Amino acid sequence: MAYAEAIFLNSAIYIIAAMGLAVFTGYTGLFSLGHAAFMAVGAYAASILTYFYRWPFLPALAVGVVLSALASFVIGYPTLRARLRSDYFAIATLGFGEAVKVILENFDLTQGARGLPGIQKLTGPGNTTLLLVLSIWLCRNFLRSSYGRRVIAIGQDHIAAEMIGIPLLPNQLLSLGISAGFSGLAGGLLAHYTTFIQPSIFSMDLSSLITAGVVCGGMGSLTGPFVAVTLFVVIPELFRGLALWRLVFYGMLLVVIINWRPRGLFGYEELSVRNLPKLFVIMGITLGLTMATVVYKALVRANAYEAAALLAALGAMGAIALLVSLLGRGVSRLLEPVVPRVRGAWQEAFARFVRLLDPLLGTMGRKRRPRAVVPGEDGDGAVGGEDTLLRILGLRKSFGGVVAVDGLDLEVERGEILGLIGPNGSGKTTVFNLMSGVYPVDGGEILLAGKNIAGLSPPDIVTAGVARTFQNIRLFGSMTALENVTTALRGGADYSLAEAFLRWPWTVWKDEARLREETLMLLDLVGLADQADRTAGTLPYGLQRKLEIARALALRPRLLLLDEPAAGMNPREAEDLVDLIRRVHDGGRVSIILIEHHMDVVMSLCKRIAVLNFGRKIAQGSPYEIQSDPGVLRAYLGEKVNVAVR
Amino acid sequence: MFFQTVITGLSIGSVYALMAVGYSLVFSVLNFSNFAHGAIITLGAYIAWAIMVAHLSVPFLPALLLSIAGAGFLAFLNERIAYSTLRRRRAPSLYLMISAMGVSICLQNLLYATVGAKLYAIPAVFAQDSFVFRDITVSKMDIFAFWFSTLSIAVLHLILTRTKVGMAIRAASRDMEMVSALGVNLDVLVAVLFFIAGGLGGMAGVFMGIKYMVYPSMGWITNKAYIGAVIGGLGSLPGAIIGGLLLGLLEALVSIASIGGTSLSTFRDVFSFGILVALLIVRPTGLFGRTVEEKL
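Above: the input entities. Below: the structure tokens describing the complete assembly.
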């Protein structure tokens, strides 16, 4: 019994640590190789409090969690602010981890390398189970909240995330802080379980073990690290004679997974009825291994030939694995019709309970943040009575010696659809990149309703009312269509971080329902309402383009930048798109700049067209004027050459 | 005292430099930090120990050459097994780094599981001998190591500037795609690259083994060499050499320094890792590196 308890406690503690890391690494895609340091902070803080100051266990753990989260800012703030290359970031965290270890080795309060012996054994199955369940619940709630969605979006495509107004630094720090907090919790539990800690426990090996758990379990998943870490703890127990080989095996596993199965066990999926069979297969193999070792030992003890024992053991393993896998399939099929019904009933019951307490808790002490004013609806048409929404003056950008945009002047009238055309490499997309803040501007002004937005950060530009799509689609591939748009919704959710963690029904539910409704309206506008719950990456190309437009619209822009929306479409799809853009244009409530090579699309949508060549505007006017402009013809077709004919 | 410190610093610095060159060579072409280099270095030292002490009692010089060849071969295998798939898939450099970490964990613990955690000494031919000049002592082994390292780096320089494959390597460090398009067999080029890096690592491993004994986690010290490479600028060979020497010197000087009576020597490693983190943030290109965009 004590043995089972030891295995359980070990797994639980490392699961908490690995899920903590998963909240950061699994979702932001940034690798931390210094999480052992955060475990160390939590372990030492909690142990010192219970050991020297006789604090009770839970408050001591809580202090450890808070200190770990704070420690994460020490390394996180400078490195994330500097936007290091992702591998440099990993190395910096590794360096931080080693530095923390050395500091602990030379610190009086932590008794240096000798460590702290004789910590009270306070970690038991009861409180560990409770904390494990709580941790899973909190992580899950966070990731399903608007805060979590922002973090996930950054991990999927950080450029697209910035372009929908998500600032990187605070969100990455938030996820790192939460992640470090859980590591600290795991550290505190570990210290009060082993009753002895010393700095060398929290080494790079521990960090890489947790990392291995996340990588093998699968990025973007909580189920994955849970299963992987459990296996990491359980399987070595079966081969105790080979304890030294444990890390050899983890190292090899890391290489194999990253090379040949980057998705890991449960990459980007959580446990559901559909992947239940997979879980059963894994359980079956583990059980089979257990049985195999038992059979092997029993047969060897009964003086059987070793080869025969091995054969019997393998046979037993295969049989059990097969049996459990089949069982998994059966269970999955059995549950398939039941689960939605049970879930529905439960949700209904819980909703009734929530409604019951609504008068009591619904408005309890909440000050609603004023809804963000939607530009374009705030009557800014009145500002100076000006008709020009956008005025670009002398915009310049060069890359090394190449001048991509060379003193460009451009105007967009309020409510207009301006076509921006030009040969390949004429600087059209660069203009969009400058307007949306992807590149810093070398010179010139970009006045949006009279305010210069050149040099603002992308999120500030979004707030000012500019949204864009990308020439090469940049959706958040593993999020659903719905989530893609919801994440971008202007104003977003109203609830606080604490409410998000608790998934507080009286605020989170209501808000999420409202967001869902707003999102569905937008999806309906672009004709994607029936695809709402599909993963964005699996949508066909044309629908992905539409989804990107819906995501941009969710920002409620007054100026929408469409970068080749019809690229790769056949004439019928292009026609369909023209209708969509007309709908989006909404009688002029949204002004649009359209970069496009499909001339029929441009000609049918735009009353005015500007032509770029070599970063300069070479012509501007009605479609008719453009078509007959000699400069434009020259740019597209080249100089007329007189060939002497003999 | 001061000069003795400088000598000590230079002698450890030259070993750092030898290892840092391995990091920088690989980084210059494949643009990732090969954390398995430490394990290769360790294995190089074990090869020397195995053939000199444990089994064959080969004399020092042939053993050194065999260790170089053996470590080079292991580095080549390492690339074939753990990186080539990722390289062909054009995976982000982070993936290569994680794979390298896996190799490092695997090999280090393989040593624990097979040879064991015991410390072994490699008998050095001239270990006990040293020159004494006034109050400065220089061990002959240090001088030999310094001389041999300089020689091999000179040879490396000749290879890179005078041979066809060397020039291909230098070209690949500018633009691998272009080199491939010109008909150079990238697999061969990368194999040579890893063989050279591993060989230099093996040599450093032997020198380190003589200085500090041979044990499975001796690769940890290569973290310092890596820091040296970052100081010099990852991907730059002169940078790696100067960075390694500089870090050795700085560490030696920090070790004898003290603030208000507290010796700083215990915080030497904090200092080194502090430099690493600060450099990555402020100037990731180090002294001589050039900016390379991350493969996204």
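Note for the figure: The radius of gyration of chain A is 30 Å.
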